[in-house]
Amino acid sequence: MGEQNLAVNQLLERKEIFADLMNGIVFEGREMVKPENLEHLPTHEGVFTEKGQGSPGVVERWGDVKMRADFGTCRVILAEETQGKVHYAMTVRIMLQEALEYTRQVQALEKRNKIERKPSKLQGDEFLSGIRKEDRLEPVITVVLYLGRQWDGSTSMFEMFGLEQQSEAAEFLTNYIQNYRINVVSASNMQEPERFRSCLQYIFSMLKYNSDKQKLYQYVHAHGKELEQMDGVEKRAAVVMLGGQKKLERLLKREGKGEEPVMWEALDELYEDGRTEGKREGKIEGKRESILLLLGELDTVPENVKKSVCAETNIILLGKWLKLAAKSDSMEEFLKRWEQEDE
């Protein structure tokens, strides 16, 4: 298990966080899953299969976090899979994991019926299957929490089969082929992070701004009090999920108090970087505007000059061009000196 998976799993193994994740995604923010009604389940699934000449084979899969939710009228298995990169066979992988869970449930019913033999022994069709007509399975819902930028893999078997393309054959085939679907949720693209009521709200919001450093640090400072209340496990998960911030990772290696990451001190430094970068961008834009304004007073600014000035990010070079524009008495003079500067 990688660092990313471990940090996220340690966070989601907390019942209150897991409940919040499922409420925010599956129940659209409604508090349907209660932490006190959750039961941790093993994440390893496996069954024996028949190989050649009756020798046994084994099919095994390991998941990330799995719990049983009791809603009073029904019980549901809720599972979460953390995925840092696109897995192009994820649909088949999740389908197999859920099938193994259903197989485990059937085997548990068979065992119970064999031991209890109540209200009577299994007979007829029930004896053949090992379960009674009134026996019921617990449905499984798996949420794939994707931590990358954009999921471009399939989310259904029809996509993997290529049956989403319209054709005469596909029109008939799709009536008989089961279109198994999976639930892939992009952590960096949560449209309504306010649906979540735990630290997940702040983590998903920061992920949303992860590609814009200034907005990220503005958000951090606006929610400083809430973020300070996060403990070591929550902070570590946030840092790992914000994995693109290499400087942040380096800063977090500094010795801090206890075992908790020095997350917000590091973000403070990065925020200052963001403000400095913002000031620099402002200066660059100001020089660009001044150059074009001075040249516009001389004559119509050639298109190639406009493009070069607007695309230039070297503040020193822009300063030279600004002085050149101020000293030139005509557009021809500026262009001649400008071309000499480029040589």
UniProtKB/TrEMBL annotation:
Q: Record's superkingdom?
A: Bacteria
Protein name, please? Transposase (putative) YhgA-like domain-containing protein
